Amino acid sequence: MVRAQVFTVAKIFDGEIKDTDLSLQFEELAPLEDGEYLVECHYLSVDPFMRAYAGSYTIGQVMIGIQVAKIIESKNSIFPVGETIVGNLGWRTHSIVKPTDDCDIYILPDIGTLPLSAALGVIGATGISAYFGFLDICKPVEGDTVVVTGAAGAVGSIVGQIAKIKGCNVIGITGSEDKAHWLESLGFDYVINYKTTKNLAEDLKIGAPKGIDCYFDNVGGDMSTIIMSQMNVGGRVSVCGSISSYNARTPARALIVQPVIVGKQLSLQGFVRRQFKERWMVAIKQNLQWVQENKLKHRETITHGFENTLKALVGVMKGENVGKAVVRVKGSQIETESLDFNSALSKFKKFQGQ
Q1: Beta strands 67-74; 84-87: pairing state
Q2: Where is the Enoyl reductase (ER) domain (predicted)?
Q3: How many angstroms separate the CA atoms of 113 and 345, rounded?
Q4: How far from chain centre, in Å, is Cα 57?
Q5: Under 8 Å CB-to-CB from 293, ≥6 apart: which residues?
Q6: Is the pLDDT of residue 15 over 90?
Q7: 182-227 tens-digit pLDDT
Q8: Strands (E), the chain
């Protein structure tokens, strides 16, 4: 019988996440029944939306989250032993998946020598959000000026690079000089450190003297109002998140933005990754191709050990991660805390028959 480690909700998040908000439990898994399969988690995704969804949590539920896992036992011919799956199985080391489970599970296609963690980032949920959230909603055209907030985060860093691939002028907003330098190395045309700038509006005018055409919003708050006030008529805004407010105990107050939206005839749309589910593989294949062509680079902040998953989430909410934050649960290979895996591009394989 397999014994799983599981993080469950002990207390609904209130303000900043605390160690006592989640509880590490042990669970004995029953033998498999027909149609079921057992998976062992290798990597867990750590994302800001986990804090944003706190209002829907119930005490005792398994903490939500996407993982990359290996099938180690199976009574399901579609999901045989040895395959790698990606799915929303939560913070668990082992899971029994039933045929009726709705966990957005798919078998990971051939990704060559990329680490499995990439299936949570650039060729996973992060890359999917960046791809559709930017291309479908912002509808960029060559020459557009694009602003990305949370630009050194998992989604923002990919959005900025896709914008460059599409021939756009890209302005990234981030919160440290190290992150700013990294964004410059990715090809961002202008980077603003919002923690040190004396006047965000004036800095935006330097980076975008002809105005802003597209805005990819990960942050919300007053910063978004300032950015939208400098958008061109007919500008497009894609709202991915509002991390500036996730830890707030009371609703955040921001400058009124409706007059800007009306006056500049802006299109503003929020999105969730799941609305594009039928097209996920389109984004995965395209992002993988861009990685192989060295057009799309990716960086990870890795936390080792399942027991440290809550610590990793706290770090994400404080902006400590660069690029995608993941937890390595299974495996003995030693990796650096900040991993850039693009050095092996020449060895990457393309999808086989996908």
Answers
A1: antiparallel
A2: 15-327
A3: 9
A4: 20
A5: 345
A6: no
A7: 999 999 999 999 999 999 999 999 999 999 999 999 988 889 999 9
A8: 3-9, 22-28, 37-46, 67-74, 84-87, 94-97, 106-107, 145-149, 169-174, 190-193, 212-217, 231-239, 267-270, 299-304, 324-328, 338-340
Number of C-alpha atoms within 13 angstroms, CB side, residue 10? 12
CATH 3.40.50.720 fits 130-273, yes or no: yes
Q: Give 153's DSSP letter.
A: B
Q: Which residue intervals of the chain bear CATH 3.90.180.10?
A: 3-121+298-347
Name the segment(s) of the chain with CATH classification 3.40.50.720: 130-273
The residues pairing with 231 across neighbouring beta strands, listed in sequence order, are 212
Q: What is the CATH number of domain 3-121+298-347?
A: 3.90.180.10
Give yes or no for a contact between 269 and 238, defined as CB atoms under 8 angstroms apart.
Answer: yes
**CB distance 78 to 98 below 8 Å:** no
CA-CA distances (angstroms) from residue 69 to 3, 89, 145, 329, 332?
16, 9, 39, 10, 15
Question: How confident is the model over 327-336, as pLDDT tens digits?
Answer: 999 853 333 3
Beta bridge partners of 330: none
Q: Are 291 and 122 in contact (CB under 8 A)?
A: yes
3-class DSSP assignment, residue 337: coil
Regarding pTM above 0.85, the answer is yes
